[in-house]
Amino acid sequence: MCFSSEIWFVHLYRNITQLENKTGTRELPFFMLSRLQVGRRLSLVALAQLYGQDVEYQGPVVKSYTVHQTTSTITVSLLFENANGLHLDGSATCTFCCNGTSSGSPLYLVDPDQGTMWEPAGKTYATEFTVDPTQGTLTASVTGFRSVKGRAQIELMMDNAPECVVYNGVGGPNDHRGIVGVSWRQNVTLPSVGQSTLRRR
Predict the structure, then answer these.
(1) CA-CA distance, 53 to 51, in Å (whole number)?
(2) How many Å separate Cα 194 from the centre of its chain?
(3) DSSP H or E stretch at residue 18
């Protein structure tokens, strides 16, 4: 039954790509598109743990991180586990996707001493970000961030509906070989200008 469900999802992914219209928007309801990846992961977990098949069923997970600060930029480098084939791609319902504007960025900083966790005073998105699949790292640069007490809250794919997300494997939301990463949040004390800090999760 589980194997049949995986085949069903694969066929459904193929059908979705045929439903894109000329503007690139999708004609399926939002809730269906956003839940496809959940169904895919559940199917892959069952294939691996119940049927013993050699399939990847977990997305990338942050293992450690480095923060470096200059006079104008804060650079965050994340090292991932389960990072074979690490890459960025737009989510199933993205508009900005990975264009580096607004939620079209995988990572942003907020000041933990202003606002609340659920209603931060403001988000400063990384406008430049690169993935090194051989090292399993994502490096993102944030410009113009201001902190009252020299602290920052790093948030990876923590928007209500993240549009630029980290995958392993191959492909994005319409390819069953690519699995979305795990969202991650961490409060840090910013290093002095010109210095770096390395932390394990």
Answers:
(1) 6
(2) 27
(3) helix 2-18
DSSP per-residue letters across 90-120: E-TT-SSTTSSSTTSSSEEEE-TTSB-SSSB
- Pairing verdict, β 124-125 and 61-69: unpaired
Picking from 5, 62, 79, 86, the residue whose alpha carbon sits closest to that of residue 38 is 5
Q: List residues bridging with 100 in a β-sheet.
A: none
d(CA 72, CA 112): 19
Residue of 157, 137, 155, 152 whose CA lies nearest to 77: 137
- What pTM value is reported for the model? 0.78
163 three-state secondary structure:
coil
* pLDDT single digits (tens) 35-72: 666 666 777 777 788 888 887 788 899 999 999 999 99
Side-chain half-sphere exposure of 184, counting CA atoms within 13 A: 26
Q: How far is CA 57 from the centre of its chain?
A: 16
Q: What is the pLDDT of residues 24-43, one digit of tens each?
A: 444 555 555 556 666 667 77
